[in-house]
Write a structure and sequence with these properties.
This protein has about 130 residues and is α/β, with parallel strands linked by helices. The protein has a single domain, classed as Rossmann fold (3-Layer(aba) Sandwich), CATH 3.40.50. It has 7 helices and 5 strands. The chain has a 5-stranded parallel sheet with strand order 3-2-1-4-5. Strand 4, helix 7 (about 120) and strand 5 form a beta-alpha-beta unit. The longest helix has 13 residues, at about 95-110. The model has no long low-confidence stretch (mean pLDDT about 95).
Length: about 130
């Protein structure tokens, strides 16, 4: 399984050209065909729509329903273990709670996180694909 950061998930669903060839290949070549999306990414998409930073062609609830229906997508719940891990990330990590939860999710599942976020890529305590 690989886990998609929120922006990667949105880019992938939209066929956005910001998704690099390497990122696209990582999704396509995923060995077990399971693509994890953290529950916090659903909240993050809804929040971005709410504040006008993301425009969707359908209402957010319909977009999320359709995006969760993509082949191989698995919703990764916000478990107590992930919640606690997000508050105990080793080393220095920035204060964005959604990023903390996504990184904690990747750490708990011991899966690589596909991201374009430089702050996450530079964080040595999570395996990333970028």
């Amino acid at each position: 399984m690989i886990i998609l950061d929120t922006h990667i998930w949105v880019w992938w669903v939209h066929g956005n050209e910001q998704l690099t060839q390497k990122q696209s290949k990582a999704i396509q070549d995923n060995e077990d065909d399971v693509i994890g999306v953290s529950a916090i990414s659903c909240w993050e998409v809804a929040k971005l729509v709410e504040v006008g930073r993301l425009g969707l062609s359908t209402p957010v609830e319909k977009w999320i329903e359709q995006a969760m229906g993509y082949p191989g997508i698995r919703l990764l719940d916000l478990s107590p273990e992930i919640s606690i891990e997000s508050t105990r990330l080793p080393g220095e990590f920035h204060r964005d709670p959604a990023d903390q939860i996504i990184v904690a999710t990747a750490r708990i599942y011991n899966c690589p996180l596909l991201t374009a976020d430089g702050r996450i890529i530079e964080y040595p305590y999570v395996k990333t694909i970028y």
